[in-house]
Amino acid sequence: CYRENILKTAKALVEDTKLLVSGAASSQDKLAQAAQSSANTITQLAEVVKLGAASLGSDDPETQVVLINAIKDVAKALSDLIGATKGAASKPADDPSMYQLKGAAKVMVTNVTSLLKTVKAVEDEATRGTRALEATIEYIKQELTVFQSSEVPEKTSSPEESIRMTKGITMATAKAVAAGNSCRQEDVIATANLSRKAVADMLTACKQASYHPDVSEEVRDRALRFGTECTLGYLELLEHVLLV
């Protein structure tokens, strides 16, 4: 029941995505209508996903988290898409903002597809862990793209905060190795959820610390490079766990 509702609402959201992209080249009214429609649809989708997660029961909280994370990814992608649409409104086809819009739309569709795959996998206990890992790998890749962009963080933090956040990576690494050894679905799902948060927190703290006023350009470049290398190394580890 929930799966059918999620599928139907997700399809409507994909149609809204198309309207948003085409709306950038049309009137402000059409763009506003498309944005309002997509906002309504994502609210409906979030509700049916939450009901689906609740139906799993409280004895499987990690899988519930996987589902909630999937809808959060879709909501974030929609927010970015609406922002990109506003930026591209009334611009010529070869304007850089149009390429950003196409990129945002691609991420949006990727995340909706990921949500649907996750919903399907939840019904099959044998594939839950695999799907959770695949979704986490995709999420980390998207976070890395944001990290590597030229966008300056809204706030800065101290180098100590960045160091503190690397402890989460250490814990997640130990968990990933243990999951690779046990191959138990619940261990793999827990690893996926922990990895997702640990890497995202590390990337955020690293970028904020690298733009601290006391940090030189040379140190910033090194910090950003090491943040990228750490993430790529962790992705490689998750790929190995997935293979196992």
TrEMBL record:
Q: Which GO terms describe its molecular function?
A: actin filament binding; integrin binding
Under SUPFAM superfamilies, the record lists: alpha-catenin/vinculin-like (SSF47220)
Gene Ontology BP terms: actin cytoskeleton organization; cell-cell adhesion
UniProt subcellular location: Cytoplasm
Return the GO cellular component terms, semicolon-separated. Answer: cytoplasm; focal adhesion; plasma membrane
Keyword Transcription regulation tagged: no
Q: Where is the Talin IBS2B domain?
A: 8-119, 129-241
Highest taxon of the source?
Answer: Eukaryota
Which keywords are on file for this protein?
Cytoplasm
- Provide the protein name: TLN2 protein
Q: Which organism is it from?
A: Pampusana beccarii
Q: Which gene encodes it?
A: Tln2_0
